[in-house]
């Protein structure tokens, strides 16, 4: 049975686009909705252009009431009955109630070689630490931030003269390859990590 995929994002949605464009032909999944917490997110127009339904659940009117925000987000997602939820730069941290509701169905991409550099400013932190390799990881979502079983990684060499922005751009190219590969495998029921060189 083809899996129904919801994609959550906050900004330009480049990973969202990569995921949508990968779900064609005999792919085991198809996109059913792209949801943003930002009504101005550039990715909304991109998703619509690709023929995917969009919705907005703005967190700001809830004034820090995460339970109320998540209740509306849950209703929005449930209306599309997703089998898989892909976080693609959705810049919110979720409560245990939300995580429990969708346990085993959520995957996320993070711009570091987890378990290193969880959280923000990953590229600057990798450079400051003198790393010779950086990269990105896809993992199942758990309550702990950027934790959960690893589903895939792609590595990028750190080059002389790299800045956080230069490194981020090269890592993002790998994100667009890794995330679709992991989603396909995950939709097939295979949680064996995808490891790209």
Automatic annotation (TrEMBL):
Keywords: Purine biosynthesis, Transferase. CDD domains: FMT_core_GART (cd08645). Pathway: Purine metabolism; IMP biosynthesis via de novo pathway; N(2)-formyl-N(1)-(5-phospho-D-ribosyl)glycinamide from N(1)-(5-phospho-D-ribosyl)glycinamide (10-formyl THF route): step 1/1. It comes from the Bacteria. Its EC number is 2.1.2.2. The keyword Transferase applies. InterPro entries: Formyl_transf_N, Formyl_transf_N_sf, GART. GO terms for molecular function: phosphoribosylglycinamide formyltransferase activity. (6R)-10-formyltetrahydrofolate binds at residues 66, 108. The active site is at residue 110. Belongs to the GART family. PANTHER family: PHOSPHORIBOSYLGLYCINAMIDE FORMYLTRANSFERASE. Catalyzes the transfer of a formyl group from 10-formyltetrahydrofolate to 5-phospho-ribosyl-glycinamide (GAR), producing 5-phospho-ribosyl-N-formylglycinamide (FGAR) and tetrahydrofolate. This is Phosphoribosylglycinamide formyltransferase. It comes from Roseovarius phycicola.
């Amino acid at each position: 049975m083809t899996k129904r995929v919801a994609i959550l994002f906050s900004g330009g949605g480049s990973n969202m686009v990569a995921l949508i464009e990968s779900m064609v032909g005999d792919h085991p999944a198809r996109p059913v909705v792209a949801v943003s917490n930002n009504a101005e997110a550039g990715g909304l127009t991109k998703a619509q252009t690709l023929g995917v339904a969009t919705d907005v659940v703005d967190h700001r009117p809830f004034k820090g009431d995460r339970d109320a925000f998540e209740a509306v987000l849950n209703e929005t997602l449930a209306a599309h009955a997703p089998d898989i939820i892909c976080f693609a730069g959705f810049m919110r941290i979720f409560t245990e109630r939300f995580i429990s509701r969708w346990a085993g169905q959520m995957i996320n991409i993070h711009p570091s070689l987890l378990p290193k550099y969880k959280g923000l400013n990953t590229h600057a932190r990798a450079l400051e630490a003198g790393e010779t390799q950086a990269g990105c990881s896809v993992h199942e979502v758990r309550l702990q931030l950027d934790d959960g079983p690893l589903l895939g990684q792609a590595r990028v060499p750190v080059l002389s003269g790299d800045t956080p922005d230069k490194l981020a751009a090269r890592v993002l190219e790998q994100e667009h390859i890794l995330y679709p590969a992991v989603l396909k495998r995950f939709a097939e029921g295979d949680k064996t990590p995808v490891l790209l060189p």
